[in-house]
Amino acid sequence: MAIAGGRDGWTRALLAAIAMGIGVPALLTAAAVPAALDPRQNRVDPRRPASLGDIPAAANTLLIGQQFEAAFRDQTVYAVLVRPEGPDAPLPPGVARLPQPGEVVVSPALRDLLASKDADLFAPRLGGARVIGTIGPAGLTGPRELAYYLGSDQLQPGQAERVTAIGSTNTVEFSPVLALLIVVISVVLLLPIAVLIGTAVRFGGERRDRRLAALRLVGADQRMTRRVAAGEALGTALLSLVAGVLFFLLGRQVVPLFTLWDISLYARDLRPNPLLAGTVALAVPVLAVTVTMVSMRGVVIEPLGVTRRAGTTRRRLWWRLILPVLGLAVLYPLFGDIRSSTVDNRYQIAAGAILLLFGAVALLPWVIDLVVRRIRGGAVPWQLAIRRLQQDSATSARMVNGVAVAVAGTIGLQMLFAGVEGDFRTDTGADPSRADVMVQSSGVDGRELPVRLRAVPGVTAVSSILGTTAANADQPHRFTFVFVADCAALAEALVLERCTDGDVFVSKPGSGTHGESYVAAPGDRLLLGTDKQLAWTVPAGTREVPSRRDPGGFNRDMGLFVTPGAVDVSRFGPLEAWMSLRTDPGDRDALERVRNAAATVDQRALVYRLSRTDEANRFVNVRRGLYIGAVVTLLLVGASLLVGLMEHLRERRRLLAILVAMGTRRGTLLWSVVWQTVVPVVLGLVLAVGFGLALGAVLLRLVTVPITVNWAVVGLSVALAAAVMALVTLLSLPPLWRLTRPDGLRTE
Q: How wide is the angle at C-alpha 417 spanned by C-alphas 413 and 418, nearest 5°?
C-alpha cells in the first residue's frame, strides 16, 4: 500500500524512510565504533618496541627512540629516531627499509605536508634527510596521521632503547568512572535517534487512516486494516534500512578525509559489529510496527470515515511519573563511590539513565497540553498556532522530544564531566605567566641551543640553565648536581636576594630520594668533565639559598648553582639544557620555528607549551567523543525534524490553501507555523533542563561528588538546541509558501 497508493502514498513512504534512514547511520556508526577502535589499536601495538632489557649490540639489534611531545601545530606527530646496528635489524610495521643516518621514511600525510606551502615550518626538524619511502597503512593509526622514522647517528647506547623485535601490547583497562562516562554517553547519543525513528514512523498518519477507511468501504475489517497498517510500516522501515545503509556507506568514504583531535580512520575500519548491526536491522522494523499499532489504539476506522479519541480528554500524569521514578529506583542501589566497585554495573546504569530520559519524553505532551489549554486570545497567527496545539499537542511534542532528550542528556553528562575531571587532571606546577614554552635537551651538548633559540623569530625571551653531574674527589661513588646559569636564569630556580657573576649557591634537598647524591659543601673537591678529570673546589663563599619552582614546574631542590664567572664551563663535558621561552602570542608559527631550531641541535629535544594542568589522554578523548557525538546528534535531529515538518505541512496543504483562498494572509500562516514550533520547543527545553539537572545530580551521587551546576554549559546546550530548531523552522518556510498556492485546493 505504501508503494502502490499513488503519488501521495510513495511520497509519504519516501519521506518517512528518509527521516528514519537519517538515524540508521548513527546506529550503525555506534555499532562500528568498537570494531573501529580495535584495528586502530592493532596498528598501534605492533609498532611499540619490544623491550628485552639490557642486551648487547648484534646483527639483529636496533637502537630506537621516540621523540615525545612531537607535534605540528595542533596535531600530534609520531616521531621516531632509529639506528640499525646490523643488517638483520627489525623493521617497524609499514616500513620496507630502515633509514640510515640522513634518510627518513614518512607517512603519506607528512609527505603531502612536505610538499605544501607549510613545508618550511616542518622540514628543518628532519635535518635535510632524504625521503626514501612512505609508511604503509599497517604502521599508521589512520590515513591522516603525521609520522616518520628518521635515521640518526645521535642515538647512542645507553641513551636509546636497544631491541631485537618491534611489537608489544600495553592494554590499559578503563577505570570505573571512565566506564560510567562511556555508558552514559552511549545512552545520551543514541536515545534521541531511537526517539526520532519512532516519530518518523507516524508521518502521514491522518492520510494513512483515510486510506484504511477506503479499504473498510470495500470490505476490509478492523483486523485487516491493522495488518495493512503494520505491513505499510514494515515496508517503510525496510526502505529506511536500505536508505540508512546507503547513507552509512557514503559517509564512510568521507571519513578518511578528516582528522578530529588527532583521530583519523580508514574507511575499512568502520565495519559494524555483525551482532550489533543485526540488532539494528531487527530493532528498526520492530519499533516501526510497534509504534504504528500503539498509535492506532485511539483511532476507530470506519467505512465512511475516521473517528479519533476526543481532544478534550485530559492526559493522565501518574503513569508518566513512573518512568523517572523507576529510573531512580534502578540507580539508587549504586549510590556511593563506584570507583571501588568490582561488579559490572554498566547495564544497570544504562537502564536507569534510559528510564530517566524517557521520563522527559513521556512528560512533554502532558506539559504542552497543560499550558496550551489555558491560553486565550492574542494575534491571529498566535491563535492559529495555539488552536492547532490544543487540537493535537502530541504531534508537536513528538517533533521536540528528540531535541529535549539530547539536551537533557548533554546537561547531565556535562555535570558528570565537571564533577569527575579532578580524577583525571593533575597540577603540573608550571606558571605560563613567566614563560609559555619549555625546551629540554639531554641527548647532546646543549650549550649551543640557547643561542639558536634566541635567534628564532617570534621568541621574545630565553632563560636557560645548563646542568651536569660531578663526582666527589674523595668519594667517587658519590655525586652532586651542578647547574650553570646567569643570575637572571638562576632567579627563576632559586630565591635570591643578590647575585653577581662569579657567585656560587647551594640548595639543600627537600622531600624525595636522591640515591647516591649529596649536598656539596664549601671546600669539597669535585671532578668535572667527560672523563671527570677537571678538579674544582667549591668556593668558601658559597651561600645556601632555598629553591623555587621554575616556569616549567621543576624544583631543583638539591645541587650547586654556579654562575659562568665561577668556573671554566668550556672544560665541561656535554651539558643538559633546560630553557624556558616567551614567544609572541600573535605569532601562531613561533612554536613551530622553536621546534625546528631545537631539532637542528638535538633531534630528540623535548619542546612543549606550558599549561597549569594536564589531563589524562583517555579522559580527553572520551570528552572529545561526547562533543563530536553531541554535535552530530543535534544535526541528525535537525535533519530528521526538517523532513518531519515538511511532511506535516504537506498533510495540511489543502487546509492551508483553503485559508489563503478565504483571505488569510500568507504572512499570518507563516507566523502561525513559527509559533506552533516555538511554544513546544520552549516548553521542551525547560523540561529538558529540569531532567538534565536531575540526571546530572543522580550521576554525581554515583561517584560521591558534590552537586554543582555550570550554568554557562547549560545555557550553551539550550542555545545550540534552540538554534537547530530555529534553523529547521526557517528552512520550512519556503515550502510552506509554495503549499499555500491555489493549486493546493485540488484533491482526488
A: 115
Classify 668 as helix, strand or coil.
Answer: helix
Helix/strand/coil for 480:
strand
Domain range annotation of the chain: 49-163, 178-244+274-424+617-745, 437-614
SS (H, E, C) 143-206: CCCEEEEEECCCCCECCEEEECCECCCCCCCCCHHHHHHHHHHHHHHHHHHHHHHHHHCCCCHH
CA atoms of 610 and 605, how far apart (whole Å):
15
Q: Quote the pLDDT of residue 262.
A: 60
Please tell me the predicted confidence (pLDDT) of residue 41.
60
Rounded Cα distance, 319 and 278, in Å: 33
Query: What pLDDT is recorded for position 9?
Result: 67
Going by C-alpha positions, the residue among 153, 104, 97, 101 that lies closest to residue 130 is 104
The residues near 598 (Cβ < 8 Å, ≥ 6 apart) are: 125, 439, 441, 449, 452, 453, 605, 607
Structure letter (DSSP) for residue 481: E
Using an 8 Å Cβ cutoff, are 292 and 206 in contact?
Answer: no
**From CA 157, how far away is CA 594, in angstroms rounded?**
27
Residue 247: partners with Cβ closer than 8 Å, 6 or more residues away? 21, 22, 24, 25
Q: Give the pLDDT band (50/70/90) at residue 150.
A: very high
SS (H, E, C) 485-537: CCHHHHCCCECCCCCCCCCEEEECCCCCCCCCECCCCCCCEEEECCCCCEEEE
Nearest-angstrom CA–CA distance, 412 and 409? 5
Rounded to an integer, what distance in angstroms lies between the CA atom of residue 454 and that of residue 460? 8
For helices 617-651 and 653-661, angle between their N-to-C axes, nearest 10 degrees = 50
Q: How far apart are CA 316 and CA 374, in angstroms?
A: 17
Judged against a pLDDT cut of 70, whether residue 171 lies above it is answered with no
What helix, strand, coil percent values describe the chain, rounded to 5? 50, 15, 35
Residue 513 has pLDDT above 50, yes or no: no
> Measuring CA to CA, how many Å separate 194 from each of 27, 56, 191, 565?
9, 60, 5, 74
Q: Which of the pair, 43 or 286, is modelled with greater confidence?
A: 286
Q: How far is CA 716 from CA 115, 390, 411, 689, 720, in A?
A: 41, 31, 10, 12, 6
Q: Strand pairing of 75-84 and 62-67?
A: antiparallel
Closest CA to 239 of 250, 251, 247, 228: 247
Residue written as grid cell 556511593: 336
Provide the pLDDT for residue 511.
47
Alpha carbons within 13 A on the beta-carbon side of 716 = 11
From the number of C-beta atoms within 10 Å of its C-beta (0-12, 13-18, 19+), residue 452 rates as: middle
Q: Kindly write down the DSSP assignment for every residue of 631-651, as one continuous string.
A: HHHHHHHHHHHHHHHHHHHHH
542, 579, 618, 711 from 425: Cα distances, Å: 40, 25, 11, 22
Mean pLDDT of the chain: 82
Q: Count the residues in the chain.
A: 748
